[in-house]
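FAD-dependent oxidoreductase
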Amino acid sequence: MSQNEYGVVVVGASVAAEAFATRLRELDYEGEILVVDRDSRMPYERPPLSKLYLTSPATTEIDVEWHETVPVTIAEATDVDADASTLTLTMATSGSARKIKYDKLVIATGATPIRLPIEPEGVMRLRTAEDSERIREAAGEGQRVGIIGAGAIGAELATSLSTIGSQVVILDKADRPLERLLVGHLGADVSSWLQSIGIDCRWSADIVSIEGKPGAWSVMLGDGNRLDFDLLVSAVGARPATAWLENSGLLTDGQLLCDPSGHVLVGSERCENIFGIGDVVTRQLDNGDRLRTESWSAAAEHGIHLAEHVAGKEAGEAEVPYFWTDVAGRKIQVLGTLRRDGAIEVEFENPARGAILYKVTGTDGSEGWIGINAQPRIAMLRMAR
Ligand SMILES: Cc1cc2nc3c(=O)[nH]c(=O)nc-3n(C[C@H](O)[C@H](O)[C@H](O)COP(=O)(O)OP(=O)(O)OC[C@H]3O[C@@H](n4cnc5c(N)ncnc54)[C@H](O)[C@@H]3O)c2cc1C
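Structure:
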């Protein structure tokens, strides 16, 4: 192949890409794999960015074991021409545009934080190592920090910044924390854990406007109250990083839709040599549903299964959905499918360790588990499935 032609090109050098490249090598693929990422610090792990990397800032916390035969090239992908099988890159070193030809293209560009329409410039967000370092620099002993959004990242941030001595207020329009992850279960418990470490929780918060600048923010609430902060962080969710694909013709309803084996679908047509893995993907399930995940385990699983598919192996069975988060000194793990209307019961308890395992059984027969400091039990359940 010429200098500008590659067998496999991967855009994004994170969890999904790492799992894909490592598995492909394990399956004896010896061709060149070009991986590009626009973030000059990649590869690194994201989960510590809201946890240990904020409280004890050692870079080892985010180190990744990346396959030595798969170098990461720092470049931004700006377009794909699916008919010509070419990818356009802007190279970080020169700033110049380069067009490369691929046999197989894997899109693994993850997600980018959502910005609320009322958010002025200067409100921080957390997705990259640089974001985490900026938050850490601005926060600290006695700083008044407002966190908008009490999903996993917001609740973890609140925990970490409170640990380093910031005065944290967390606000969410929902009436409890971790609403999307726990779909209504254990909201009062999580809320009391956050309060017990000194976090001021404002649920059902109606933010009408945000004024100010870094160092002096005012958040106006619908009930007439005003909250003042030195630092304001928005953690209201993330959307798939597909903006660069807008002219490619690869998006369906604005989504990078993929079939269960990872092929990109354009309408009902399947692209034979373009694939998607990780947070960027919306999966078209056989039952007609569409599913998008934002989880380390799902991204890794997508990568492994795609490598097996590309290598002509039968891909392993889909794993049971899994997510973990560390909130207010507790490890919260969610396994399986939680239904809002599901019946929740305690399946195991060890008060001495603060461990408890709940089972949530949906009216449709679905099963899910919530573990609080119950890592061994969740590990056993994962192995059994
Ligand atoms: C702060 C934080 C904490 C988290 N904690 C947990 C947790 O506790 N448990 C859990 O299960 N999950 C957690 N997650 C989620 C988990 O990290 C993600 O699900 C996972 O990183 C997704 O991996 P990915 O490979 O799909 O994409 P990403 O990790 O998002 O990486 C995508 C990469 O693509 C690059 N990219 C994007 N666009 C372009 C382009 N046009 N050209 C070139 N490169 C591009 C980006 O720079 C990025 O490096 C957390 C996420 C964050 C941000």
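The chain has eight helices and 24 strands.
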